[in-house]
Design a protein that fits this description.
Layout: E1 14-18, E2 22-26, E3 33-35, H1 37-45, E4 85-89, E5 95-99, E6 106-108, H2 112-118, H3 131-154, H4 156-171, H5 175-187
Antiparallel strand pairs: 1-2, 2-3, 3-6, 4-5, 5-6
């Protein structure tokens, strides 16, 4: 029985390879990639251990990526017909990676695997679907927004000095004394 594209359910997926050893199935129309769970786990076990870092999501990448028009569309697993769960990847151009909660297969729309690979997240895709990871990402986003607001309000020169002082105080065993001093200065 042919395996159909989870996004349009019309096109038959064709056999292909990612990473020279990861057997996948690709849609000839939308260029999305279905990664069967068994193939991914076998490939993953052959890779060096990786610890995903949410801070990498804010790094700039030189890559020609255009979010797929199918990214917002719900999809059915091509293997077991369950609805695919979605995990948002909050890179500079956010997108969703999908995974079957039943059989564990993974769907990447066109270009998403390349971004995951460049961010070092391709070897630990299952982590993206955990509450712990999503909480870390939200925390990192909050820090980035706070940093951008500080630069906006103080200008880049003073903001850079504030960030450096904050790091010095954070690393110093009595840094809290310095923070308390500054707070008292601004209470006057």
């Amino acid at each position: 029985m042919p395996v159909l594209c989870p996004k349009d359910r019309k096109h038959t997926l064709s056999e292909s390879l990612l990473e020279d050893s990861l057997a996948v199935q690709c849609c000839p129309d939308c260029k999305g990639t279905w990664i069967p769970a068994e193939n991914y786990e076998t490939w993953q076990n052959q890779q060096p251990p990786a610890a995903p870092d949410p801070a990498r999501l804010s790094q700039p990448l030189e890559v020609d990526f255009h979010q797929s028009p199918y990214d917002a569309k719900a999809a059915l697993c091509p293997e077991c017909s369950s609805y695919l769960a979605r995990a948002k990847v909050n890179w500079s151009k956010p997108f969703f990676v999908e995974r079957c909660p039943n059989c564990g297969g993974i769907w990447c729309d066109r270009g998403e695997w390349t971004i995951l690979e460049r961010l070092g997240l391709h070897r630990t895709i299952q982590v993206l679907f955990t509450q712990e990871w999503q909480a870390k990402v939200r925390h990192h986003e909050t820090l980035e927004q706070e940093r951008a607001a500080t630069i906006d309000k103080l200008g880049p020169d003073i903001a850079t000095q504030v960030f450096a002082l904050a790091q010095l105080l954070e690393d110093h065993p009595n840094g809290d004394f310095g923070v308390a001093y500054l707070m008292r200065r601004f209470e006057q």
